[in-house]
């Protein structure tokens, strides 16, 4: 059964004309999961599926470049032509539901529970979506943030979310067939990775896919620098690209 990740966007910290912010469509057979919802990714998602056709949404952390398109998604699901048969499971950090509801409130509390069934993540959180098991791993980003391992029991996708160097990254990447990892900066940081750090963190994975490459470094240079520290194939998460897990 096909297990793929489609890059909806990989820009940071704001969307570019040809590249939305962080967002990915994870597919396993008929199962479809929207992984992070950065600005511009709702439109890109609709090139592949309508929001009401999703089996789940998983959000790594609550910075706007990873979550902002949940706001127009609520309008699509509640007030337009895409009402879901039932609320879509939404997995996100503590406070996800309250944050969305507060932002969308006008004369009263926004009824986001009609669009999303919110489940708050914690380190080691597990969820079953279709044939995939999703395991969340707390990472270092200065406030609640999570990486993800998604597996069908045979193949595994690991995703760093946004993070600085931490021991959890080794756990996250170990044994993964594909490690989707941020490489934000060419300068070391407590809350983001350099390409070299991403390469070192990915050592236990089979393949490395760099995303969230910041404005201070080109995608080509990021791949080159990561490859100096990672023995396997390294690629860049270009928008619209599809990668097998």
Automatic annotation (TrEMBL):
- Tell me where in this chain the Metallo-beta-lactamase domain is found: 20-212
Q: Which InterPro entries match?
A: Metallo-B-lactamas, RibonucZ/Hydroxyglut_hydro
The UniProt entry, under Pfam families, shows:
Lactamase_B_2 (PF12706)
What CDD domains does this protein map onto? RNaseZ_short-form-like_MBL-fold
Q: List, alphabetically, the SUPFAM superfamilies matched.
A: Metallo-hydrolase/oxidoreductase
Superkingdom classification of source: Bacteria
Q: Name one GO molecular function term.
A: 3'-tRNA processing endoribonuclease activity
Q: In its UniProt entry, what is this protein called?
A: Ribonuclease BN, tRNA processing enzyme
């Amino acid at each position: 059964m096909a297990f793929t990740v489609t890059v909806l966007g990989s820009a940071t910290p704001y969307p570019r004309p040809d590249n939305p912010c962080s967002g990915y469509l994870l597919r396993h057979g008929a199962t479809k999961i929207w992984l992070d919802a950065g600005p511009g990714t709702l439109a890109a998602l609709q090139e592949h599926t309508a929001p009401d056709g999703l089996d789940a949404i998983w959000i790594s952390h609550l910075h706007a470049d990873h979550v902002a398109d949940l706001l127009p998604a609520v309008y699509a699901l509640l007030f337009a032509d895409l009402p879901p048969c039932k609320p879509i499971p939404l997995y996100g950090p503590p406070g996800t539901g309250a944050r969305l509801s507060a932002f969308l409130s006008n004369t009263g509390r926004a009824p986001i529970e009609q669009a999303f069934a919110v489940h708050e993540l914690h380190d080691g959180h597990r969820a079953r979506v279709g044939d995939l098991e999703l395991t969340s791993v707390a990472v270092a980003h200065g406030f609640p943030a999570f990486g993800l391992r998604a597996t069908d029991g045979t193949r595994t996708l690991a995703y760093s979310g946004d993070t600085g160097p931490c021991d959890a990254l080794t756990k996250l990447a170990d044994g993964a067939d594909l490690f989707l990892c941020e490489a934000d900066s060419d300068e070391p940081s407590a809350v983001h990775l350099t390409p070299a750090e991403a390469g070192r963190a990915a050592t236990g994975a089979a393949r490395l896919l760099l995303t969230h490459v910041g404005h201070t470094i080109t995608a080509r240079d990021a791949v080159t620098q990561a490859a100096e520290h990672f023995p396997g194939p390294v690629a860049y998460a270009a928008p619209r690209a599809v990668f097998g897990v």
